C-alpha cells in the first residue's frame, strides 16, 4: 500500500513538471517544432519539423514550402514576404503554439497571382533542441507525407503523357487549381491533349484539322466539338449541364426517373437524350446506331471490363470520369474544364468554376465544431468517409473539423470505411454536428427514424443538442455546386437558418 | 426391326428435324430482332455482302450474331451437363451446378473484383473470364479428389453441395470487406447475361463446347449402362473409377464454360433433359444427347431473346426468364411421369 | 470335370476389414451353388466379391484358373453376369432395352446392336418368356416379370458363370418356382455355373448341387446338398429353437407342445397331420401311434407329438409294439382315431381303437372337439 502511494506521488510530480514545461516557452535558443499545414488544394506542404528561434521570449519559425511559387503569407493584417524561394518559398513568422493559425498565401502558380487560404498548427509538445543532427534531419526533410509521394506519382504519368510520339512539344499546360487526376496540354495549331491519371490519353483535333501522323497507338483522337456522347457517369452529368454542353449528350446510362438534374430530365423527356441501358449492360445496338463518338463512364466500368472492351471494339472510345478520386471537392468540380475542352465550351466552364472557387475562398476561420458524416448500412454498421476524403475536405473548408483523424488507408481506392457501432460510438459520440448521408439508403425523415436504425445514437451529443442534419439525395449528383454545398455546410456549422439551406435539412 | 423400335426411330428423326428447324428459325429471329430496327431486306443484303449500311452491318455481325451463337452453344452445354449429372446420379433435379461449379466461379470472381480492383489495378474481360474458369476448375478438382475416395457416387452430390456452401461462405467473407460498387457488380455477375459477347468469346466457346459434346456423345454406351445403376454398369464392363472422373470432368467443363462467359444461368440444365425425354419417350443416351444439345440451344436462345427485347433497352436477367419457363415445365413433367409410373 | 470357379483362402469384407475368412469354394460349370445362412451373415458380401464388385480383403478368386484380378472389366463382363436385389429406378426404359444392356460387352463403340446381338436378345427373352411385354416400360410390369427380364439380361450376356443375390426375394411361390426351374435349365443346358443366395430353404435344397453355409466369421459348412440339409446342421445354422427342421422334405415344424399328454391320436398314411398341427396350435400335448417309420405321419409326429409309438418300416405291427401302445393308452383320457380304413400292416390299430373304447376313454371324431373340451 505504501509503495503504491509513493509511486503515485512520484507520478503526479512528474506530470506536473511536464505540464509546467509544456505551457511555457523554452529559453532563448534554436529548436525544432512540428508544424502541420491544412487547407488549400492539399498539394502544398511545409517542412516539418520547422526551425524555431526563441529570442527575448519571442518565438519565430522558419517555414519552408514545398513549392517556390508562394510570394507572401498574410496572417491577420500582417503580411510576410518570402525570404527566399530555394528550396521552396521560405517565410519567417511568429509562433503561437497549440492553436490553429489561419492565413492566406499568394501563389503565382497560374499566370495571375492568386490567394489561397490555409491553417497552421504548431505543436508545442514536439519542441526539441536544435542540434547538428537535427539540421541534417530538417534539411533532408520530407516527412514522407502522402501529398509529397503522390506528387511523385503525379509527375510520373504527367511527364509520360506529354510525349505524343511524333515529336511535338507542348506549348502550354493548362493550370488546374485543385484537380490532380487529369492534365491538359496545348500543342501548336490548337491541338489539345487530355491525359488522365489512369494513363489514358485523348487528343482533341480542332475543327478543320486532321489527325497528325506518327501518334502513339494508345492516344485516342477526337474531333472537337465532340457530340453524340453516351453518358454513364452520373457525377459528370451536372458538369455538362453547368457548362451548357448537354446538347452534346445523346445517350444516358440512367433512366429519366433516376436523374435529379432538371436539365437532363427535360432533355430525356423531350427525347433529345435516350436511355441506352445501364453501364453494365448497355444497348450496343442503340449506341452504335446513334453514331456515338465517346462513352463517358464512371469508375464502375472497371468492374465490367467486357463492356469497355466491346465499346472499344466498335471504335467508341471510353473516357473514365475520375473526378470521384479527387481529394479536394473543388477538384471534382474542376473536371468541367475537361468536358469543356471536349465540347468547345471553355469560356462557360471558366466562369462557373471561378464562381464556385469564390464561394469557397470567402470562408475563412474555423467554427471549432466537430462534424461526423455517415450512414448506417443494412448490416447495422456505420459507414464513414476516410480522413483524407473529399467530404472531409469539404467539411474543413466549411470551417468544421471532420472528427475522424487518420482513419482509413488512403492508398486504397475506396472512399468509405465501415465501422462497427462500438468504434463509431467511441469516435463520434462527442461530435458537435451529425450529418447523415442519404445517397445510399435514402433520405431520413426525422430523428425518430434515425434512432430506429440504432438506439445508441440517442446518447450522441449532437442528437441531444438537436444538431442532426441529413443530405438531400441530389447532393451527390450536384458536382458543380460543391462550392454552394460547402457554403451550406458552413451555414449548418454557424447555426444558420434551416430554410436557407438547400442541400441539407435538419432532422427533428 | 420390331415395330416399337421403328416407331421410336421415326419419332427421334421427326423430333430432331423439327427441333433443328426451330433452332434455325430462332437464330434468324435473334438476328432480325433488336432495339434498332433493321428491315429484313437489309439483313439479307448484309448477309450476302451487298450492303453499304455500315452501322447496320456492324450491329448484325458484331452484336447480334456473336450473341446468338454464344447463346445457342452455351445453352447446349448447359443441357448436356444437366443430362449427364441427372443420369449419373439418378436424380431428376440434379443440375449443372450441383457439383458446386458456380459457387467456385463466383468465389474467384469476387476475389478479383474486390481485391484487385480495390488495389487500384484494372482487370480485363479476359481476366474475369479466366478467373471464373479457374474457380470452377478448383471446385471440380475438390470434387474429383473426393470422387477417388468414396464408394458410392451418390456421395458426390453431397460433396458438391458442401463445396458450394464453403465457397459461398468464403465469398461472403470477402464481400464483408468490399465496397458497395463491388457488391453490386458481383450481384450483377451472378445473375448471368449474354450481353457483350464478341467473336473471340464465341471462338473459344465453340471449341470447348464442341469437343466436350462430341466426347459426351462418344460416351453414350457407358452412360446407357449407368441407367441400371452402378453395380450393373460395373458388371457390364464399365470402369467405374475412370468413368466417374470423366463424367465429373466433362460436366464441369461444360458448366464452367457457361459460367465463365455468361455467369451462372439456372434451369436450362435441369429442364431441358426432362423436356427432351418426354418428347422422345425414351431416355436412351445415344438418342437423347443430340436432341438435348439442340434443345438446350433453343431454350437458352429463346429465353435470351425474351430477356433482351421485352423491356428494351433494359435487359432482364436471363436466369429469371429461364426460371419462369423452366420451373413450371419441370413440375408438370414430373407430375405426369409419376402418374404413368 | 474341372472346377470353373474356385476361391483360395478368400476373406471378404468392407474397407479392408474381413467379415468372413477362409472361404474355399469349388464350383463346376453346370452346377448350382447356393449360399444359405441367417440375415446379415455376409452372403451378399461373398457374392459381391465373387462378382468383382467388392475387392477381396485377402485371398484370391479364380475364374477358369485365372485370378480375378487379372481380368479386365471388359473380359470379365463376357464371362460373368449378375442379378442383384436392388430395385432399379429406370426411366423410360423398355424391357427389351433392359435385356439389350446385357449385350454391352459385345457391341461396338456406340453400343449399336448387330443382328447377332438381336438374335441373342430374342433367344434370352424366349427362354424366360418375356417376349409378350418386351416393349412395355420396365417400371410398368410386375415384380415377377421384372426378375425374369433381369434374368434374360443376365443370360444374353452369354456368361460362363452367373451370380445372383436373392433372385426370388420379391416373388411369390409360383414365380419363385418358375425362376428357379429356369435357372436349373440354363445351368444344365447352357453349361453355366450358378452361384446364388436363397432364403427359402426348401427350394434351396431342391435346386442346388452344393450348399455353402454362412454364419459368423467363417464358413460353417460347405458341401453337397444332402450333406448339408440335415436336421442338426440346419437347426444349428439358423439357431432354431422354437421349432424344428425336417430334412426329408425340407419342412419346418413349430414347437412341440409341453406337458404330459392326455390325448392319444391313432393315425397313419397322412391322416394324422391335420390333427397334429391343430393340437399343436392349441398347445395340447398328445401321444400318437401306431405309426410306421416310413409313414408320412411319422415325420410330423416326431416333431410335434410328445410320444410316438412306431413300428419298423414295411413290417406288420408286432405284439410288443401293440402292448406299448395300450400301456400308453391307459394313461390318457381322450382318444382320436383319424384312420378311415385299415390295411394288412396296420390292422393292429383297429384293435387299439376298440381297446380305447373299452378302457373308457372319451372318443372324439376330430381334434376340434378336443379343443372345445379342454381349451
CATH first level of the largest domain in chain A: which class?
Alpha Beta
Helical content class of chain B:
over 70%
Largest sheet of chain A: 8 strands, antiparallel
Q: Assess the beta-strand content of chain A as a share of residues.
A: 25-35%
Share of residues in strands of chain B:
under 5%
Labels describing this entry:
B: 341 residues, mainly alpha, ABC transporter involved in vitamin B12 uptake, BtuC, 14 helices, C: 375 residues, alpha/beta, Rossmann fold, 2 domains, 5-stranded antiparallel β-sheet, elongated
Short description:
Chain B contains 14 helices and no strands. Chain B has helices at residues 3-32, 40-48, 54-89, 101-118, 125-149, 154-176, 180-191, 199-218, 220-225, 230-235, 240-262, 268-280, 285-309, 318-340.
Q: Would you mind describing this structure in some detail?
A:
The complex is a heterotrimer of chains A (508), B (341) and C (375). Chain A is an alpha/beta fold and 508 residues long. Chain A has three domains: 25-143, Sandwich (Immunoglobulin-like), CATH 2.60.40; 156-352, Rossmann fold; 362-506, 3-Layer(aba) Sandwich (Rossmann fold). Chain A contains 16 helices and 25 strands. In chain A, strands 5-4-7-8-1-2-3-6 form an eight-stranded antiparallel sheet. In chain A, strands 19, 20, 21, 22, 23, 24 and 25 form a seven-stranded mixed sheet that branches. In chain A, a hairpin with a 2-residue loop joins β4 and β5. In chain A, α9 runs antiparallel to α10 (346-361). Chain A is globular. Chain B is mainly α and 341 residues long. Chain B has a single domain, classed as ABC transporter involved in vitamin B12 uptake, BtuC (Orthogonal Bundle). In chain B, 79% of the residues lie in helices and 0% in strands. Chain B contains 14 helices and no strands. In chain B, α3 packs across α12. The mean pLDDT of chain B is 87. With 375 residues, chain C is α/β, with parallel strands linked by helices. Chain C folds into two domains: 3-239, P-loop containing nucleotide triphosphate hydrolases (Rossmann fold, 3-Layer(aba) Sandwich), CATH 3.40.50.300; 256-374, Rossmann fold (3-Layer(aba) Sandwich), CATH 3.40.50.720. Chain C has 14 helices and 18 strands. Chain C has helices at 43-50, 73-77, 95-100, 115-128, 143-156, 173-189, 201-207, 225-228, 231-238, 273-281, 296-304, 319-330, 348-358, 367-374; strands at 3-14, 17-23, 26-28, 32-36, 58-63, 66-67, 80-83, 161-165, 193-197, 210-215, 218-224, 243-246, 251-254, 263-266, 286-292, 307-311, 334-337, 362-364. In chain C, the strands form four sheets. Chain C has a six-stranded mixed sheet, sandwiched between helices. In chain C, strands 1, 2, 3, 5 and 6 form a five-stranded antiparallel sheet that branches. The radius of gyration of chain C is 27 Å and the shape is elongated. The interface between A and B is large, with 35 and 36 residues.
Amino acid at each position: 500500500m505504501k509503495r503504491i502511494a509513493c509511486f503515485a506521488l512520484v507520478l503526479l510530480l512528474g506530470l506536473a513538471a511536464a505540464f509546467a514545461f509544456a505551457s511555457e516557452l523554452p529559453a532563448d535558443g534554436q529548436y525544432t517544432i512540428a508544424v502541420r499545414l491544412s487547407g488549400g488544394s492539399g498539394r502544398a506542404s511545409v517542412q516539418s519539423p520547422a526551425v524555431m528561434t526563441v529570442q527575448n521570449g519571442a518565438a519565430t519559425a522558419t517555414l519552408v514550402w514545398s513549392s517556390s511559387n508562394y510570394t507572401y503569407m498574410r496572417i491577420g493584417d500582417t503580411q510576410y514576404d518570402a525570404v527566399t524561394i530555394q528550396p521552396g518559398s521560405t517565410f519567417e513568422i511568429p509562433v503561437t503554439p497549440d492553436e490553429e493559425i489561419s492565413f492566406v498565401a499568394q501563389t503565382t502558380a497560374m499566370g495571375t497571382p492568386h490567394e489561397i487560404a490555409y491553417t497552421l498548427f504548431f505543436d508545442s509538445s514536439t519542441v526539441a533542441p536544435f542540434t547538428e543532427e537535427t539540421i541534417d534531419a530538417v534539411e533532408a526533410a520530407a516527412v514522407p507525407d502522402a501529398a509529397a509521394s503522390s506528387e511523385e506519382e503525379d509527375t510520373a504519368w504527367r511527364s509520360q503523357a506529354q510525349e505524343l510520339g511524333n515529336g511535338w512539344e507542348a506549348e502550354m499546360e493548362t493550370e488546374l487549381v485543385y484537380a490532380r487526376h487529369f492534365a491538359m496540354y496545348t500543342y501548336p495549331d490548337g491541338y489539345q491533349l487530355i491525359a488522365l491519371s489512369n494513363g489514358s490519353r485523348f487528343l482533341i483535333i480542332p475543327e478543320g484539322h486532321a489527325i497528325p501522323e506518327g501518334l502513339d497507338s494508345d492516344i485516342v483522337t477526337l474531333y472537337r466539338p465532340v457530340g453524340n456522347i453516351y453518358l454513364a457517369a452520373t457525377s459528370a452529368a451536372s458538369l455538362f449541364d453547368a457548362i451548357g454542353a448537354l446538347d452534346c449528350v445523346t445517350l444516358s446510362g440512367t433512366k429519366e426517373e433516376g436523374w435529379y438534374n432538371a436539365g437532363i430530365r427535360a432533355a430525356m423527356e423531350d427525347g433529345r437524350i435516350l436511355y441506352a441501358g445501364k453501364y453494365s449492360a448497355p444497348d450496343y445496338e442503340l449506341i452504335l446506331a446513334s453514331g456515338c463518338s465517346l462513352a463517358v463512364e464512371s469508375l464502375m466500368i472497371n468492374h465490367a471490363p467486357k463492356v469497355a472492351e466491346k465499346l472499344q471494339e466498335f471504335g467508341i472510345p471510353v473516357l473514365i470520369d475520375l473526378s470521384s478520386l479527387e481529394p479536394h471537392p473543388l477538384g471534382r468540380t474542376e473536371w468541367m474544364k475537361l468536358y469543356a475542352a471536349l465540347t468547345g465550351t471553355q469560356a462557360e466552364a471558366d466562369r462557373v468554376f471561378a464562381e464556385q472557387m469564390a464561394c469557397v475562398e470567402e470562408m475563412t476561420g474555423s467554427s471549432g465544431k466537430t462534424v461526423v458524416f455517415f450512414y448506417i448500412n443494412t448490416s447495422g454498421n456505420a459507414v464513414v468517409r476516410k480522413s483524407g476524403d473529399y467530404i472531409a475536405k469539404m467539411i474543413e473548408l466549411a470551417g468544421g473539423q471532420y472528427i475522424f483523424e487518420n482513419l482509413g488507408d488512403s492508398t486504397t481506392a475506396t472512399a468509405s470505411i465501415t465501422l462497427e457501432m462500438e468504434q463509431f460510438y467511441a469516435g463520434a459520440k462527442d461530435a458537435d454536428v451529425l450529418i447523415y448521408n442519404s445517397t445510399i439508403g435514402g433520405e431520413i425523415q426525422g430523428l425518430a427514424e434515425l434512432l430506429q436504425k440504432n438506439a445508441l445514437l440517442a446518447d450522441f451529443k449532437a442528437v441531444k443538442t438537436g444538431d442532426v442534419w441529413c443530405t438531400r439525395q441530389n447532393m451527390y449528383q450536384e458536382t458543380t455546386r460543391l462550392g454552394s454545398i460547402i457554403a451550406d455546410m458552413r451555414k449548418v456549422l454557424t447555426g444558420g437558418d434551416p430554410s436557407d439551406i438547400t442541400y441539407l435539412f435538419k432532422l427533428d | 426391326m420390331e415395330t416399337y423400335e421403328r416407331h421410336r426411330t421415326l419419332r427421334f428423326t421427326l423430333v430432331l428435324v423439327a427441333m433443328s428447324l426451330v433452332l434455325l428459325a430462332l437464330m434468324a429471329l435473334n438476328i432480325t430482332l433488336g432495339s434498332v430496327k433493321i428491315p429484313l431486306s437489309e439483313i439479307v443484303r448484309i448477309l450476302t455482302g451487298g450492303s453499304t449500311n455500315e452501322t447496320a452491318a456492324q450491329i448484325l455481325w458484331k452484336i447480334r450474331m456473336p450473341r446468338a451463337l454464344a447463346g445457342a452453344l452455351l445453352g447446349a452445354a448447359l443441357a448436356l451437363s444437366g443430362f449427364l449429372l441427372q443420369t449419373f446420379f439418378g436424380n431428376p433435379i440434379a443440375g449443372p451446378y450441383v457439383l458446386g461449379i458456380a459457387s467456385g466461379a463466383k468465389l474467384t470472381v469476387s476475389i478479383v473484383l474486390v481485391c484487385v480492383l480495390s488495389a487500384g489495378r484494372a482487370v480485363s474481360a479476359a481476366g474475369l473470364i479466366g478467373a471464373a474458369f479457374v474457380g470452377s476448375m478448383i471446385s471440380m478438382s475438390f470434387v474429383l479428389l473426393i470422387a477417388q475416395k468414396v464408394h458410392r457416387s451418390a456421395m458426390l452430390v453431397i460433396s458438391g453441395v458442401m463445396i458450394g456452401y464453403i465457397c459461398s461462405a468464403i465469398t461472403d467473407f470477402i464481400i464483408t470487406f468490399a465496397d458497395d460498387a463491388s457488391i453490386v457488380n458481383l450481384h450483377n455477375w451472378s445473375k448471368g447475361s449474354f450481353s457483350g459477347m464478341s467473336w473471340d468469346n464465341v471462338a473459344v466457346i465453340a471449341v470447348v463446347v464442341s469437343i466436350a459434346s462430341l466426347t459426351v456423345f462418344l460416351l453414350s454406351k457407358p452412360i446407357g449402362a449407368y441407367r441400371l445403376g452402378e453395380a450393373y454398369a460395373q458388371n457390364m464392363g464399365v470402369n467405374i473409377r475412370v468413368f466417374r472422373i470423366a463424367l465429373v470432368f466433362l460436366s464441369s467443363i461444360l458448366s464452367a464454360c457457361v459460367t465463365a462467359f455468361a455467369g451462372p444461368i439456372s434451369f436450362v440444365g435441369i429442364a431441358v433433359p426432362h423436356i427432351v425425354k418426354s418428347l422422345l419417350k425414351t431416355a436412351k443416351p445415344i438418342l437423347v444427347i443430340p436432341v438435348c444439345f439442340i434443345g438446350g440451344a433453343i431454350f437458352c436462345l429463346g429465353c435470351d431473346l425474351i430477356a433482351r427485347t421485352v423491356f428494351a433497352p433494359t435487359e432482364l436477367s436471363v436466369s429469371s426468364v429461364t426460371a419462369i419457363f423452366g420451373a413450371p415445365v419441370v413440375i408438370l413433367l414430373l407430375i405426369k411421369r409419376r402418374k404413368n409410373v | 470335370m474341372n472346377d470353373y470357379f474356385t476361391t483360395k483362402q478368400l476373406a471378404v469384407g468392407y474397407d479392408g476389414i474381413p467379415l468372413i475368412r477362409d472361404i474355399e469354394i469349388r464350383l463346376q460349370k453346370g452346377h448350382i451353388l447356393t449360399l444359405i445362412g441367417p440375415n446379415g451373415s455376409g452372403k451378399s458380401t461373398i457374392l459381391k466379391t465373387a462378382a468383382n464388385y467388392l475387392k477381396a480383403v485377402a485371398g484370391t478368386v479364380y475364374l477358369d484358373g485365372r485370378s480375378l484380378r487379372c481380368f479386365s472389366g471388359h473380359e470379365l463382363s463376357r464371362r460373368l453376369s449378375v442379378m442383384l436385389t436392388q430395385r432399379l429406378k429406370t426411366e423410360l426404359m423398355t424391357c427389351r432395352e433392359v435385356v439389350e444392356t446385357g449385350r454391352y460387352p459385345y457391341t461396338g463403340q456406340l453400343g449399336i446392336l448387330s443382328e447377332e446381338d438381336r438374335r441373342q436378345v430374342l433367344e434370352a427373352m424366349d427362354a424366360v418368356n418375356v417376349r409378350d411385354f418386351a416393349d412395355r416400360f420396365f417400371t410398368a410390369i410386375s415384380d415377377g416379370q421384372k426378375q425374369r427380364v433381369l434374368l434374360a439380361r443376365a443370360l444374353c450376356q452369354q456368361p460362363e458363370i452367373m451370380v445372383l443375390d436373392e433372385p426370388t426375394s420379391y416373388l411369390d411361390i409360383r414365380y419363385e418356382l418358375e425362376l428357379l426351374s429356369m435357372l436349373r435349365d440354363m445351368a444344365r443346358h447352357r453349361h453355366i455355373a450358378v452361384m446364388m443366395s436363397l432364403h427359402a430353404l426348401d427350394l434351396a435344397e431342391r435346386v442346388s448341387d452344393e450348399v455353402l453355409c454362412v454364419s459368423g466369421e467363417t464358413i460353417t459348412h460347405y458341401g453337397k446338398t444332402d450333406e448339408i440339409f440335415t436336421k442338426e446342421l440346419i437347426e444349428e445354422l439358423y439357431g432354431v429353437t422354437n421349432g424344428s427342421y425336417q430334412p426329408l422334405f425340407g419342412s419346418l415344424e413349430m414347437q412341440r407342445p409341453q406337458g404330459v399328454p392326455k390325448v392319444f391320436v391313432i393315425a397313419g398314411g397322412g391322416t394324422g397331420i391335420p390333427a397334429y398341427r391343430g393340437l399343436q396350435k392349441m398347445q395340447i400335448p398328445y401321444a400318437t401311434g401306431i405309426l410306421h417309420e416310413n409313414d408320412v405321419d411319422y415325420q410330423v409326429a416326431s416333431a410335434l407329438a410328445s410320444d410316438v409309438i412306431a413300428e419298423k418300416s414295411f413290417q406288420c405291427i408286432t405284439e410288443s409294439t401293440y402292448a406299448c401302445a395300450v400301456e400308453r393308452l391307459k394313461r390318457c383320457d381322450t382318444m382320436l382315431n383319424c384312420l378311415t380304413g385299415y390295411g394288412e400292416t396296420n390292422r393292429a390299430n383297429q384293435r387299439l381303437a376298440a381297446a380305447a373304447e373299452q378302457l373308457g376313454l372319451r372318443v372324439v371324431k376330430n381334434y376340434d372337439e378336443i379343443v372345445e373340451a379342454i381349451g
